[in-house]
TrEMBL record:
Residues 40-50 have a biased composition (Basic and acidic residues). Residues 1-83 are annotated as: Disordered. Pfam families: Sulfotransfer_1. Residues 25-36 have a biased composition (Polar residues). Residues 79-250 form the Sulfotransferase domain. The lineage of its organism: Eukaryota, Metazoa, Ecdysozoa, Arthropoda, Chelicerata. This is Sulfotransferase domain-containing protein. Keywords: Transferase. GO terms for molecular function: sulfotransferase activity.
Amino acid sequence: MANVSEPEYESPPGSDLSSELEGGNANTTVPLTTAPDSADGTRNETDAVERFAPVRADQEDHNEDSSVSDPGPPSEPRPSDVFTVSYPKCGSALLQFLVFGVLNRGEPSKDFEDFAARAPYLEWMGIKSVLEMRRPGAIKTHLPFEKNPHSPHAKYIYMARNPFDCCASYYTHMRTMPLSRPESASFDTFFDAFLEGKVIYGDYFDHVLSWYDHRSDTNVLFVTYEDVKSDPRTSVIRIADFIDPSIGRELRENPVLLSNVLKIASAHNMTTTCHQGIRSILADELALAIGKERITTAEFYKNVFAEALEVTEASDFMRTPICGRWKEFFKPEHVRRMYEWIDQKTAGSDVFSIWSSSDLPRLNPDNLQ
């Protein structure tokens, strides 16, 4: 039994606010700090941006027992490992379900527990769940390239989404998550936080560029949310070819198999699976059965998410995947500031050209479409 220590990448990187937290572990992508009420009982809009940073998790390390039967440390992925990676709200679930369908030859998961055991979320479930994951499966993470456990033999599929839609979707997501749910925080407030990188996982372009710069690596496949949505069949075959060319051939030769893979990643199936999973996890203190043991991510989350059991069905955790969500929130001033930020962050890179044919706003303030 090899005694495996916890890796340094256990805390989500990149948030200015989270880095100021003393002690503990900033941890997970979900629990958020809540801005204090003002004296009259109302929320302070000026403090609202704090609600978009990770909450302190000063609880004990919940993966203390890392002694497992594994040939190497968690910083060295197995050659057979496949990682699905994205910045938050950039299609991580869509990619996760597509890869699950490809690896399992169009066979759906038995239930959410089976899905999560074959597609563990590294930052949420801990390294032990990854080391003991059921196979075939893929590891989900939101980590930037430099923080992700790397091996030249493992495979990494990165999905990018245009910053306009990402920002809009991220804002909607934050408004409906347990504990954060900043109903009084306007889109303007979140927009400021997004451009400043004061959101979980930090600056959007720092994250995207960390992977875009490695798009030519033989073990990295860089895809966009927009391409997958516009041509899912071609995208699935491309993903399959990258993972295992023999699976790609199967999908080309068997239209029924290809359709079954796409059904697994349908909006209906993703929503049904995720909502059922959220409820079952919350009801069971976020514990997942892996083999004969139970891996409990944190008793902390039981308290954090207790109220979520009452709002899960109405939650916006799993929205129908669409392109053009920015139209719901962006005004001319947002568009102007976004493009200024894009020019600043992408100087010297052609990364933004990958969305040259996407439905993005124009700089003309009188015509955003």
